[in-house]
Description:
This protein is an alpha+beta fold.
Amino acid sequence: MTGLFKNNKPMLLTVISGFLILFGGIASYNSWRPLDVVLFISSFIIGGYYQGKEGIMELVRDRSLNVDILMVLAAVGASIIGFWLEGALLIFIFSLSGSLEIYTTNKSTDAISHLMKLTPDTALLLTEEGRTEEVETEDLKIGDCVIVPKGSAIPIDGQLISQYGLIDESAVSGESVPVSKQAEDVVIGGTVNISQPIKVRVTTDYSDTLFAKIIRLVDEAQGTPSQTATFIESIETHYVKIVLVFVPVMILVFLYILGWGFTESFYRGMVLLTVASPCALMASASPATLSAISNGAKNGVLYKGGSYLENFSQISAIAFDKTGTLTEGTPKVTDVVFNDQSYGKEIQQVVVAMEKQSSHPLARAVVDHLSAETEGRLFHFDLINEVEGKGMEGVAGTDRYKIGKKEFVVKNDDDYLAIEAMNRQNEGKTVLYVSKNDELTAYIALLDLPAPGAKETVDYFKSHNIRTLMITGDNQATGESIGSLIGVDEVIANCLPDEKAELILELKKRYGTIVMVGDGINDAPALANASIGIAMGAGTDLAMEAADVVLVKNDLQQLSYSHKLSRRLNRIIMQNVVFSIAVIVFLIIVNLLQLINLPLGVIGHEGSTILVILNGLRLLR
């Protein structure tokens, strides 16, 4: 119950207005005049203060008419002909619907409030003298060292100084399993240290932390309405002008053509002024969009505006970058084949000893894969040398070993092992060749494997008749290899960064509304050119800035979640628009037939407004 009144003064005034109407009704029943009129007028002023003030301010400052003016005029008109109770009820229910809309907005910003609470306001700064000092988190500078006690939230993005840490990253990744961190690993502000106290070096300004970016993005998105909401708001002034002309004309029709008498004609005009107002129509889109944006934020998807979320369900094609988006971004060993299996252990030790001296990403993948097989035993070399762009070369006694590219290692292209290795290469795999004294002894094949959920995500969009494409700078064979594993409809390979951007423009002409998903600096131009650009949360800052949507958790399946959320948002908006128009038409007709009075008209009209707001609130779940 307290949530209804939190940061919502109009709701408190609405409740007071309701009690004043109740007391005014009692006074009117007992003929305590003019007390009943005083109570009803008080209810008018208190209940309609905020929205009446807003309507008058817009009229005076911006010279634009809105539904608030219609409601005030209807209530004043009813009171002029002695229907004080009806006028007060009109203001009360109108105020209630407005207060509920504020409540919707507040609920939608709970995601921001929740995120802000995740990062502590203070941090334990480790001074140069070795003492700890409690300081404001926002005062921390890059290079500062902070202590994070067990069970405490890390105050700011940084790098682990301690040798080991166990971090609960569920607030960012959604994964409940804690993540082991080693020295120099990145840690994120707002995640929780569940191991022994750790030291963290600050690497990011307070305003540039991941959570600060999230909060900023959600805040901006909630201030950017959807296209439907913008359109509805754009017709408000014109609609109000039509109603203000239509009502006096109808009063004259009632009076002189139908002969209903002045009081009845004026009364029917006030009912018409009430029921023809587009309050429910105006509330059809914005509360629902705010709720959907909040829903996305809580689930790790940030939309930079309501229009991007609304349009997501209208896409006809979706293009993915390969490396780091559809794939894990780091190659994994898939094949290790030896010329003579009996020398396998020795060759593995040779490979690990040589590759440990290299900084190449492929070398890291090979060492990680083979280290367990060598059981910690390394081959002894007299000399190891890295040949830039080709591979590694090592000398042990009279033996010379090589590992690297084919042209660097292989001397006989007709060697059956070389032919087999080339077949792996034609499958799109990266192959490292190993030789001893220029004789090919082994090859190691690596592949950047599909990211978790990549195939399921592609299958989802294909099942909805949305064209799926993969764009990569790799060669066609590598692209086709990954593309066939994931199941995309089309692979576009050998694509440079500037070509990606041009390609997206061509694809927009071919397919219409197209989404581009990427993570790197080279994807930023393409993301900017797409109808909707989507950046992976673990990608570069430039990609996140250029994108319209950010997947904070780096989970591709959030794309299908976003598509479902967009479809649900559009369905609810359509329900609200159709329902609100139907109610307006119905109430106008029954008023012309003299089948309703002003209280029933108010309940029907403002009740429909409350219902569309509550319908939009369903998207918070």
